[in-house]
Amino acid sequence: MRFFFFYLLVSVSLFAETPPNYSRAKKELLIAWERVFPLPYGSILSEDPLRKGITKEKRGDKKVVWVYNFTVFMPKYDRNQNEPKARKEGREILVYFLWEPSESEDPYRIQLGELNQNL
């Protein structure tokens, strides 16, 4: 019985620290983007365009931040009776998606362009 409890405790602690993969991060990016920005992005063109993978950064004493990078297509928009209408042209934007598991209220942040290490 003690062995089972110890095994359960160890397995839960191992899985609690694992970051979500890129497929889960794509879903969470969409949710976080809608919360922060008024207009949606067109599509995700590539995941991990910088070829760094999912990086783990330690900030401060106990803060751990998982950093993902994406390239998204942001279309230009026209206003059509106060409704935004996406055009075909737009631009590619480098997006950093930061996940901080210790933050319970708002664990996800988005940064566009160059990564600011001070966040």
From TrEMBL:
The keyword Signal applies. The lineage of its organism: Bacteria, Pseudomonadati, Spirochaetota, Spirochaetia, Leptospirales. Keywords: Signal. Residues 1-16 form the signal peptide. This is Uncharacterized protein.
